[in-house]
Design goal:
Elements (H helix, E strand, L loop, with lengths): L6 E5 L4 H12 L3 E6 L2 H14 L6 E5 L5 H15 L4 E4 L15 H29 L2 E6 L12 H21 L4 E7 L6 H9 L1 H4 L1 H13 L4 H12 L10 E3 L12 H5 L19
Parallel strand pairs: 1-2, 1-4, 2-3, 4-5, 5-6, 6-7
Helix pairs in contact: 1-9, 3-4, 4-5
């Protein structure tokens, strides 16, 4: 088993991708703590995980709003008392937020999307970093997405927050490099989850015709399997990926199963990162 006896936390794990990640971690032998805002859903997810777990594996679940410092403090205190120091953190909790033209969306809803997606990544990191520094080892995996690498009209809160998550990931990777704590972001691909349902429910007039039609095609094609991104999380949580840090990796498009073979090249390169493109990069002289 790739994650035997490690302690992992997965946020936003009551359903969808977060639940799939937790499932894969349990199958690989990890002790898993999961949280989400809805206590009923997260407890039901924990019951499912317990049926997958071996007799010595620990499963802990709790309701937690990852954008609220007091909630996060309470959750991680409970995790440490039940599972011990956290070896792996997956920041999966996230929302699309308000949809529509930026000047028309409700500001409080827009602000809330930043709080959940960005604060909800930053705060859990704060509470595990000290534990990982003590161990001089750790893995942090932050969920990003297409909104970080290309404009996403009419879902601007999500796009802005996910780009911020990637830059935070790159920055934290440098801060923690000397402690052998790897920090990466992943783009899971176009998933058929509740976020897709939200887009389709909003309709073409709100999210835009092009994005709506793209979402319809995604729904009908089945989307990228959840297991693809979940297996990437297993890879990044395992010893196999040691030393790969500060990268944004696509579960769907990148050859992540063999990135360890190119560890030294990746460490010296800015591939899989967010960078400014200058004219010379595109063969232009301005």
């Amino acid at each position: 088993m790739k994650l035997n006896n490690i302690s992992a936390v997965v946020t936003g794990a009551s359903q969808g991708l977060g639940k799939a990640i937790a499932d894969e971690f349990v199958k690989e032998g990890a002790h898993v703590a999961l949280c989400a805002r809805d206590p009923n859903l997260v407890n039901a997810a924990a019951d499912d995980l317990k049926r997958l777990a071996g007799p010595d594996q620990k499963i802990f679940a709790s309701a937690c709003d990852v954008s609220m410092e007091a909630d996060v403090q309470k959750f991680f205190d409970a995790v440490r008392s039940r599972l011990g120091p956290v070896n792996v953190l997956v920041n999966n909790a996230g929302v699309y937020g308000p949809k529509g033209e930026s000047e028309k969306v409700d500001f409080q809803e827009w602000k809330r999307s930043i709080e959940i997606n960005l604060y909800g990544t930053f705060l859990p990191c704060r509470f595990v970093i000290c534990q990982m520094k003590e161990l001089r080892r750790g893995k942090i995996i932050n969920l990003s997405g297409g909104g970080a690498t290309a404009p996403l009209p009419r879902i601007s809160g999500y796009a802005a927050s996910k780009a911020a998550v990637v830059r935070f990931t790159e920055t934290l990777a440098e801060e923690l490099r000397e402690f052998s704590i790897d920090v990466n972001a992943i783009a899971p691909g176009a998933l058929n989850t509740r976020l897709l349902e939200e887009v389709l429910s909003a309709g073409a007039d709100i999210v835009g015709k092009a994005f709506y039609e793209k979402s319809l095609k995604q729904r009908d094609s089945g989307g990228v399997p959840l297991e693809r991104a979940a297996r990437l999380c297993v890879y990044l949580a395992s010893e196999m990926s040691d030393g790969i840090t500060g990268k944004l990796i696509s579960a769907q498009w990148d050859p992540w199963e063999k990135l360890h073979e190119f560890r030294e090249q990746l460490a010296k390169s800015d591939v899989y990162t967010l960078r400014r493109i200058v004219p010379e990069d595109r063969g232009l002289r301005l």
